[in-house]
# Entry
Amino acid sequence: MTKKDFIVKVTADANKIMQEDDTKAKVTQKIAAAVIDSAFEAIIDGMKNGQRVIPHSGFIFSSVWKEAHVAKNNLFGGGEVEVPGKYIPKIKFGPHVKEGINSED
# Structure
């Protein structure tokens, strides 16, 4: 599923919910894209600050600090290379997601 497909799906689902609630307003793809981008930016900002971000019960986003170390450069003669410390993104899936992808429907 591409980002465009994702936006189309979110837009359609949001409009379906609004129609069921008798709301006359419509969600456009532009608005859905802005909301999705904003959500991802919020997740990234939280992870940059070392926080665990739980936007839904099925997902936990976090980052782990990997210390600086010396690695072997196998591509160019096997010399040693200094690798700076950095944050590594992590995602953990909850039971809701695991059950959902393994369901028969």
